[in-house]
């Protein structure tokens, strides 16, 4: 009786796990929405976002280009490509520039290279993870691309 119970349990467990794995495999991978997205640098404003244009390329990457402008010549710009690792993790290659009058002596902070954007928890945006401003002194830039 024990062997019959154990055998039945094993067969049912295997059937359930195979069925569940097939169900998970059939779930569509969430993609980045093409089109205009809000784009912000906290020093400028979260309430008056700029815009970026995101467009999918044939190779599966996405181009991203846009800006947010504020008073006194303040701005953040982005121009490059995004590669989706997962929906919540993006690799960016290109150039991000920030400028805010009272940060880094009002000079442009230029970041050119490979960077990472993550969406954590319930956030509805991807945030640049290499957020140190060129000024140093624990000054950080929150550069966000909204879903």
TrEMBL record:
Keywords: Signal. The keyword Signal applies. Residues 1-21 form the signal peptide. This is Uncharacterized protein. It comes from Chitinophaga agri.
């Amino acid at each position: 009786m024990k062997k019959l119970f154990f055998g039945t349990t094993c067969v049912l467990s295997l059937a359930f796990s195979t069925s569940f794995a097939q169900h998970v495999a059939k779930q569509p991978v969430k993609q980045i929405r093409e089109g205009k997205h809000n784009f912000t640098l906290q020093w400028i404003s979260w309430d008056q976002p700029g815009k970026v244009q995101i467009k999918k390329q044939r190779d599966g990457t996405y181009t991203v280009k846009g800006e947010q402008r504020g008073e006194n010549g303040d701005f953040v710009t982005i121009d490059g490509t995004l590669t989706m690792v997962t929906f919540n993790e993006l690799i960016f290659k290109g150039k991000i520039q920030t400028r805010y009058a009272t940060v880094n002596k009002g000079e442009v902070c230029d970041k050119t290279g490979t960077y990472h954007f993550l969406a954590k928890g319930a956030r509805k945006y991807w945030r640049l993870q290499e957020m140190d401003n060129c000024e140093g002194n624990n000054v950080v830039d929150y550069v966000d691309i909204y879903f």
